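Quick entry between incubations.
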Amino acid sequence: MSRAAILANVRSGLKVEARHESERRASVEARLAQGAHHLVPARGKVGAEERVALFKSFLAAQGTDVIDVAADAEIPAAIAAYLGDRNLPLRVRVGGDPFLASLSWTGELARDTGVARPNDTAGLSRALAGVAETGTLVLASGADNPTTLALLPETHLVVVRRETIVGSYEDAVALISAELGSEALPHALNLVSGASRTGDIGGRIVVGAHGPRRLAVILI
Amino acid sequence: MTTQSQRPRVGLFVTCLIDILRPSVGFAAVRLLEAAGCDVEVPAAQTCCGQPAYNSGDRDTARALALQTIAAFDGFDYVVAPSGSCAAMLKVHYPRLLADDAEAAARAVSFAERVHELVSFLVDVRKLTALPGTFSGRVAYHDGCSGLRELGIKRQPRELLGRLPGTELVEMAETERCCGFGGLFCVKYPDISNAMVSRKTANIMAAEPELLLAGDLGCLINIAGKLAREGSRVGCRHVAEVLAGETAEPPIAQTSAP
Amino acid sequence: MSPVSPFTTRSATALANERLQRALADVPGGFVAGRARAKAALPEFEALRRTGRDIKDHALAHLDLYLEEFERNATAAGSIVHWASTAAEACDIVLGICRETGARLVTKSKSMVSEEIGLNAKLEAGGLEVVETDLGEYVIQLRGETPSHLIAPVIHLSTADIAEDFLRHHDHLPPDRDTSSPAVLIAEARGILRPKFLAADVGITGANLLVAKTGSAIVVTNEGNADLTLTLPRVHIVVTSIEKVVPTLDDAWALLRLLARSATGQEITAYTTLVTGPRRDGDPDGPEECHVVLVDNGRSELLGSGMREVLRCIRCGACMNHCPVYCSVGGHAYGSIYAGPIGAVLSPALVGVQEAGELAQVSTFCGRCEQVCPVEIPLVGLMRQWREVAFGEPGDGRSKLLLRVWAFLAQRPRLYHAAARMGTAALRAFARGRGTVSRHPLAEAWTRYRDLPTPQGETFQARWARRQREPTP
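Done. Structure below.
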């Protein structure tokens, strides 16, 4: 009905002729199959160490806190220290992420598992990748790292492995496809580049609009 | 020493505003072109570049004037206009206006290749370094929109002004911001135009120049008229007047001292 | 004397509004400075503009095929795709989905298309409570206004204005509370809107881009309100227009590299979300249903109109931030959902030349908009095309007559030069030796605010002709 009308109107607007149809389809199929390989900014095409440095510099510019951790075992204590320094409750909500579950949670930091509830004070997720070109975290929806953990609590903590810090968004997609096991995307890929903010009132940027007021990246 | 046969033949595109309001700019242009080693003629069959029609949506009149102008300047080595907006009309828009007729389009393209705005012609084509003018004083420069964005004129007037010893060029704020003339816009939407030119004159007065210079008489009469209404003593001249030393006439909108 | 146009009336109000003028002096300039910084920090910026242009041109030239591909893949991911030719149809579809799911409360994140189709009014008439969650949109919802800028809806309001609105509408809160700064106002709004996010039955977002290959919608915000809107309710509806579709993720990244930088000067917005269908089996959160409503509302006609390039627009707002006219009068003066240069080209196409054709007249053609457009839309040429359409229609007889007289003379050089000599002499006589006049019966629009410079003497052509006749000394 409307579908047919709209497509017909589009074709007539484009003055599509039957004799060009196979050429058009071939062009579209090629583009879909091969992708486009557009210009990717040079800034992310650096070695691993420089990528991490670039990533951290963008996080700093966003106002995102960076917690450098030397060993996995230190993560819970580092989080406890971060929250304690800010007089925040020593409690995090976390999903079913196997890596996060494997950590030793026996210290002073309390942990609950599940989707975020309205009164949760801190959410802890693991990012699948970090993108150096703009200091961006890539989070996937699902039981491992429910999206609400990144949205509802006032503090969002994100674990990022240094070796998953890639140069560009394109590299991130390639890495994620490998991790998720197929090219099918999850319900949501959240690319997070800083805590929630707005400049709508008086043109002044204020952090903590509707989402988290505070974003901290735990680099391991 | 250049002989007659080596001096290029330049057709001067006068522009309506210069013709009617300020011929001294036209004579300054001639002086500069001759100093740059050119022989200058002024075809009588020229009237207007056609912008008023073109920007009002009267494409037919614009095309007619394009054909008329191209014919009037047939045979010249160069066509030079002391106006960024008129030069852009001739160089950028005539080929577009006549694109649907192969023969006229070819003529328009060959014509456009020979068209130049005055100051960029002197610097980029004639490589003029010695100027007839000897102005000294503090000046500011307004970048007219068409010359700037359609023809890339930015560095050239500053380069030539820099060759006048004793002339101090002060860059005011927002030199590239539109002054609000816009051809018929300033009389169709005078309140908005006034807001725009007021911002321009505020920037000019903050820079405290003796003279405000520009390459388009449209911008200049708009700005000068506003400065006069505001009681400012900043004078406005076309940059060609200063470069050519044609400053006997008072600045725009000012009356000569008794 | 031609009647004063609606635009002129609205712009006169805008020019006299001191609060608006103060806001316009500050905020767009901030975006302009931001964009300049972002461009300086990315050497590939100009090259990416050409890439963006080419991506959109390719997508538009094959729009039917990419829409079909999008539908295929979105459906495979579990979305339900709807097609709406008109605004009314789109509203009916959305209302239908809401009714079917028994919804009472709807949260919304910013969608210009939803403004265009008048969605909120239709939903409210259908008995639903609709809450805008983008802070700026929330404020204008309280005020019953329309947004005045593409990405900063309340650019026309000061902090004090918004404080007044909150005091008036949030009357369950103590009236003597602090409302003095953006931070406290935002905290207040957060407290008001959070329960709405949590209780909403349906969340409606727009889409900045649609990706054909994956069947995804991309939604960008700084607040994260779109994410809360699309994640928490049981049903997510994307209301979007057909020209948003691009072939692959590669194309999306290229355009996203241009979007925030062109809009505010940020490298990227705080939240950039790629949504592909509803929650998967085993997902503990996310919507159970995802609908995508593809709206035409005049776009397919634009494809064949000779103004196709306007469909490249990625809604960054750079054109209006850099427009000296927009920065004088603000968005409401344009009287249309889309303001500034993009509005001047798009609005007449969507709502008709009669209603919006004047927007293309209100420009000096300074060309700054074209220079900053991330997808190189030839905005000046497109505005001129609308002027050509308007010229062919009846209206404003007086100025058309003047133009006809001028055109007649301009095509007859001898007559023209004679008329120029006469006009020059007349103006000189009127001026009686003064370099300028402050009043002239035929030039009220000019002399209202400026003096009118008077001719130096004879015309250049007359003097030149005399100089040619006299021997050179």
